[in-house]
Amino acid sequence: MENSATATLIQPELFPETKRESEAVVGNPLPWETAASEDLLAAQVVVNRPIDKAFTYLVPDHLRADIQTGQRVRVPFGKGDRLLTGFCVSLGPVSKTGRDLKWVQSVVDELPLITPSMMDLTRWIADRYLCSWGQVLDGVVPTGVKQRAGTRLIRRFRIHPDTQARLEGVRLSAKQQAVLQVLQDRDEPLTLEEISASAHCSAGPVQALVKKNLVIALRERTHDFVPEPTAIERNDDLKLNDQQEVALRSIVDSLQAKQHQTFLLHGVTGSGKTEVYIQAIREVVGYGRQAIVLVPEISLTPQTVQRFQSRFDSVAVLHSHLSAAERHWHWQQIRRGAVNVIVGARSAVFAPAPHLGLIVIDEEHETSFKQDSTPRYHTREVARERARIEKIPLVLGSATPTLESWHRGQTRKDVVLSLPKRVEERAMPPVVVVDTRNDPQIERGDAIGRVLESGMRTALKDSGQVILFLNLRGFSPTLWCRACGVSAKCPHCDVTLTWHRDRNVALCHVCNYQTILRNCPECGHAGIRRLGSGTQRLEEEVRRKFKEHKILRMDSDSMRRHGSYSAALAAFRNGDVQILLGTQMIAKGLDFPNVTLVGVVDADTSLHQPDLRAAERTFQLISQVAGRTGRSHRGGRVFVQTSSPGEPAIAFAADHDYHGFARHEMQQRQAMHVPPFRHLARVILRSEDEAFVEAKAEEFAEIVKQTIQEESLAVWLLGPAPAPVAKVKDHYRYHFQLSASDPEEIVKLWRIAEDQLPKSSGFEYVIDVDPTNMR
């Protein structure tokens, strides 16, 4: 551990004019000085800085009774002694450091925000994802909790336990006697307003009793925010089929054995995975314990919450669309153990459940479970480690598991539970792959081809509902100059601009730069063509072709207002909307029995990306979208429009053949030496000076290469090279990758090499362990 400097262990001289004897030199303190230093308490403190060290601070006597591990403290930091808030990670006697130590200035929290088990988990995250402990601790506690959002300090008063004895010889006014009588009758702390109303007095008599030590004043923090109660119709548990019973029994056996095991619940869409979750959680709640359920999209949270609220008495919600006060209130309820089920997105994995019994990750394949800022953790792996620490089961559910999870199941590191059939033996919907290369409607610029349009008319005529999926928002994703043949790009990023018709602007989807584009920014020619279709253009086309039907678009542009997700889904569920179109927020987890047709407008958008997971994501998207139909006796059909009908990912998805796709893709991955057969870490450097960052990338890579050779580490170095998106927000980007069979080899390499890396200004770098975004 590293120590900060400037305050001394040696107490100030009581008599400065007295000279020390010759033995009182540095390193040979007087006996009374040694005794004093041995009685001092030291706190190890980590701060939110990219420094993976704890700093030792002395704890003043007046804070000894208040400070605890897991609390935040205010400490002077650095040469300027600037006050920072950090986390106390341990307390103990002062060790001989040879350094002068500073003092903790104050304790921020009344109670610890971090439990001992969460302390272990955050330390693991810091080690696994190569960031500092302080960055992790600061990241796992919601801002609203740290700011005590929605609360205020109030004063309450209670009668002193020894008041009867203290009353002897004390003269009290009639109002003071009335106050004491009220406090004695109520036998609980009361606010000044409550006392004044009951005793018919002002604040004066109360304050007088406090001065006489007959009444004690308490400072308490109370929540101003309390959620409004919602009327939810209660539902009974459903009867499970044989395959669901087998899956549930396996999970319950692990619960009863009080041992950690990861289960991969692989079930086709509509196979009843959620009912297995619910009845496993029923068992957990029966033991007086809590469960965390993680979902990938905020848009799924309202539906999921409602489903769990209909089964359990207390359900808390944690996601980023809550206000700070709402999030703080739910967090406190969870910490008090007053909640059975915690539902939320990625960060809910850190919910402070004191009696945790089960963690469930629904749609575990979703990339949104990977954090894209420091700490860059993967929720699946964090949940696995938390479940191991807590000795509880982890359930990963998906119709299209990640190949990493599938590989663990095939190598028996995890247990695979299969639900190969839909509930009530309903058939999977037939999928029609539509080759759009010669479709005249597509050639003239429409997004909907002849076959899909015909299928939509048939479904709507039969009173069914339609879902159209297109994973491109905006109106036109390409602005092309007919004169010079160049596509208009963002001046700050290496990406093309997308035209948004509703705002009449060309918008960058990376940095949000926008401009009104009348002429080509390259040659100045006025002939700009808008090519391709986004969800806005698709909506316009659908409204033109299906005027008699109600249409709703769901993407991040149209779902900005609070509650808009819930309102949109409710309108579709109630039949007020017949055609729902949107991006991937409508592609997963939604259950609408009246949907009889699903159309994938362009299956190629994710297929031809410079990403090793492009085929896997294409298969997952088509499979998930296809699963939105055929969920009732009405059945359903799926149309997949593509200009690459022979691609294996599309062909396997059309056959609902996950096993076939996994075998094919695993062979490709193994030949390429990429996940799940090896682990990756990606180092990204950026600077406003392209030549400078290129040189730094070369320098970084050379240092890493030398470290690999000197330490004889089994790590491959790939690169450096420009990143696929070479410029973002005026910063040029270079990257290189580290590849190893054992992730610990990468961790060891980076810990050694990082100390040798240049720290000059003018550039920044990050390391992303197990990256899912390769842009």
Describe the protein.
- The protein is α/β, with parallel strands linked by helices and 775 residues long.
- The protein folds into 5 domains: 2-112, GIY-YIG endonuclease, CATH 3.40.1440; 151-223, Winged helix-like DNA-binding domain superfamily/Winged helix DNA-binding domain (Arc Repressor Mutant, subunit A, Orthogonal Bundle), CATH 1.10.10; 242-425, Rossmann fold (3-Layer(aba) Sandwich); 431-475 and 533-671, 3-Layer(aba) Sandwich (Rossmann fold), CATH 3.40.50; 679-769, Ribosomal protein S10 (Alpha-Beta Plaits).
- Helices cover 31% and strands 23% of the residues.
- The protein contains 23 helices and 32 strands.
- The strands form 7 sheets. Strands 1, 2, 3, 4, 5, 6 and 7 form a 7-stranded mixed β-sheet that branches. A 7-stranded parallel β-sheet has the order 13-14-12-15-16-11-17, with helices on both faces. It has a 6-stranded parallel β-sheet with strand order 18-28-27-19-26-25, sandwiched between helices.
- Helix 12 (324-335) links the parallel strand 13 and strand 14 (341-344).
- Helix 2 crosses helix 3 and helix 6 (174-186) packs across helix 7.
- The protein is globular.
- Residues 1-35 have low confidence and may be disordered.
Proportion of residues in extended strands: 15-25%
Can you tell me the CATH architecture of the largest domain? Answer: 3-Layer(aba) Sandwich
Question: Biggest β-sheet, characterized?
Answer: 7 strands, mixed
**Outline, from the CA principal axes?**
globular
- C-alpha end-to-end distance: 37 Å
Total separate domains:
5
Structural class call reads alpha/beta
What is the CATH level 1 assignment of the largest domain? Alpha Beta
Rounded to the nearest angstrom, the radius of gyration is 31 Å
Overall helicity: 25-40%
- CATH fold-level label of the largest domain: Rossmann fold
Q: How many β-strand runs?
A: 32
Number of helices: 23
CATH superfamily of the largest domain: P-loop containing nucleotide triphosphate hydrolases
* Mean pLDDT rating: 88
Q: Unreliable segments (pLDDT under 50, ≥5 consecutive)?
A: 1-35
